[in-house]
Amino acid sequence: MNPEKEHKKGGSRLQKSTEKPEKQKKPRVPLTSRQKALRVVYIVVTVIAAIIVTAFAASRLLFVKPNVPTTQNRPKPPVASGEPISSDAPEINDSGRKEDFFTFLIIGRDTGGGGNTDTVMLVAYDVPNQKLSVMNIPRDTMVNVSWDIKRINSVYNVYGGGDDGIQALFDEVSQLVGFIPDFSVVVEWEAVGEMAEAIGGVDFEVPVNMNYDDPTQDLHIHISKGMQHLDGEGVMKVLRFRDGNNNTGYVNGDIGRIETQQKLLKAIVEKLLTKVTEPSTILNLAGVFTENVTTDLTVQNIFWFGQQAVLGKPPLSIDNVNFVTMPCTNKSVWSRSFAGKSYQFQSYVVPNTEELVSVVNEYFNPYLEDLDDKDLDIMYVNSDGTIGSSTGVLEDTRHNSAWAAYKSTPKETPTPEVSETPELPESTETPAPGVTPDPGATSAPPGGGGGETTAPTATPSVGLEGPTDDEPAAPEPTPTPDSGAESGPPEGIPII
Predict the structure, then answer these.
(1) What are phi and psi of 210, to 5 degrees?
(2) pLDDT tens digits, one per residue of 157-184
(3) Global pTM value
(4) How remote is the C-alpha of 361 from its chain's centroid?
(5) Tell me: the pLDDT tens digits for 7-23?
(6) Contact 219, 321 (CB under 8 A)
(7) DSSP for 322-376?
(8) Which helix (H) or strand (E) holds 188?
(9) Pairing mode of beta strands 219-223, 183-188
(10) From CA 203, how far away is CA 256, in angstroms rounded?
(11) C-alpha to C-alpha distance for 422 and 189, rounded to whole angstroms
């Protein structure tokens, strides 16, 4: 018996009917040379198309163009204790926006200096024309607020920092430039040094000899004037320096430091544009950004801006990166918080309105319609010491009346009590009539600073010593007037 047949079911006819005849294989027709070439082209095109589709899908995920916020979806400005923001920030909508024109408010916050926003920069990126513009707004800029010390660098802290501080600062900057910036970028200043370190340092022409020592901060700056290769630490020292220990530093104070900061940042940007295509540099910069930057932009938005700058046609060139400083004038204004003290007059800068409007329209205005001065809220100082706002509304309703009362109060010069007239040495000349020697007088502290000098010629009137209940609960920022100001409290630490 055949074992193979034993395992088959059904009769022979059934088995025959279920067996299918084998198909005859047709012989392959060989391809011609042209057909082979076309087949290769087809495969290559298919692969390329697949890569393009994949890259496009990835780019849609990695490179996302940001949506510009509108008035409706912006957070409302906060209200600090005693300081409501009553006016809407200006915004020009009727004329329409320029295509792919984005504005940013970059805020440099120094954790070593109490967290004040001592660096405020308005940035505009015109993508189609590949132009990047940066305007420094000096930290001593006078703004229309209700509290006594009206420097713009106090706004962030008065509102408690964070999102509320940012929105309040947005509002004040919008009053200066006539529109609300699109996005915010808060940078811890240490990030600039880390960024410079990530690109291998930068060559820079240091404008002045920089010598400063502050043991309390373990801060020691010793950098010679001239071309220097600065690593991350060196970059931070140059950015921080303003006044040296021996009455050295920038002749024009904070404006000089701003000019140096602008040139140094431009040098960093120039090198960054040449290094940003290196994978290791990108990874290092991503780490710096993640740890030190807070922004309302997404990572994909930032990648999109980087893509436009590096791969744009043409790409962004350092020749099209422009730094300017807000046109301004130095002013000195009486402070009721420091009435009667040697630094009762505080140093400020106030914008030069016509020049500011011209600069904003040329580089920063995102709208098709030009701005004019009626779109701004600019503070000014009258010759009699009173202050005002170009809008006609002064948020600080106390200043002018308090200044008038202080001026009208008689100031007595205290005369020290002397029990007996001291004998003068024979070699000492007799003082002129009416002049009484003061044996209790003390000399100024050595070094021209570091101690408080009291002016006994001014006695504050009752009710004018410091803020009262109608002022914000947040403490007044410590005044730090620039070099060359009429007077000011001890500088302390010359950092931003």
Answers:
(1) -115, 110
(2) 889 888 888 889 999 999 999 999 999 9
(3) 0.67
(4) 20
(5) 555 555 555 555 566 66
(6) no
(7) EEEE--EEEEEEE-STTTTSTT-EEEEEEE-HHHHHHHIIIII--BSSPP-GGG-
(8) strand 183-188
(9) unpaired
(10) 19
(11) 57
Structure tokens at 207: 């404008």
What is the pLDDT confidence band of residue 84, given thresholds at 50, 70 and 90?
A: very low
The confidence band for 281, taking pLDDT boundaries of 50, 70 and 90, is: confident
**Which DSSP category does 147 fall into?**
S
361-373 per-position pLDDT tens digit: 999 999 999 999 9
Q: What is the rounded CA–CA span in Å between residue 387 and residue 373?
A: 18
Alpha carbon of 147 to those of 46, 123, 177, 337, 399: distances in Å? Answer: 68, 28, 22, 10, 9
Angle at 326 between CA 320 and CA 332, to 5 degrees: 160
CA triple 389-394-395, angle to 5 deg: 130
The count of residues in the chain is 496
Closest CA to 197 of 107, 131, 288: 288
* H or E element, residue 379: strand 379-381
Q: Return all residues near 26 (Cβ < 8 A) that are at least 6 apart.
A: none
Coil/strand/helix, residue 220: strand
Q: Give the chain's end-to-end CA distance (angstroms, integer).
A: 105
Measured over the CA atoms of residue 286, residue 288, residue 290 and residue 293, the dihedral's sign is negative
pLDDT greater than 80 at residue 445 = no
pLDDT digits (tens, 9 = 90+) for 122-151: 999 999 999 999 999 998 999 999 999 999
Please report, for residues 134, 343, 381, 449, 456, the alpha-carbon distance to residue 105 in angstroms, rounded to integers and kept in the order given.
Answer: 10, 32, 27, 35, 44
The pLDDT confidence band at residue 79, using thresholds 50, 70 and 90, is low
The sign one gets for the Cα dihedral 211, 216, 218, 219 is negative
Q: Which residues contact 45 (CB under 8 A, 6 or more apart)?
A: none
Q: Which of 98-107, 296-305, 324-333 is least confident?
A: 296-305
Percent of the chain topping pLDDT 70? 65
Crossing angle for the helix pair 279-292 and 190-198, to the nearest 10 degrees? 170
Q: Name the burial class of residue 410, with classes exposed (0-12), middle (13-18) and buried (19+) by CB atoms within 10 angstroms of its CB.
A: exposed
3-state DSSP call for residue 421?
A: coil
Kindly state the DSSP code that residue 74 receives in the 8-state scheme: S
> What is the C-alpha separation between 460 and 471, in angstroms, rounded?
19
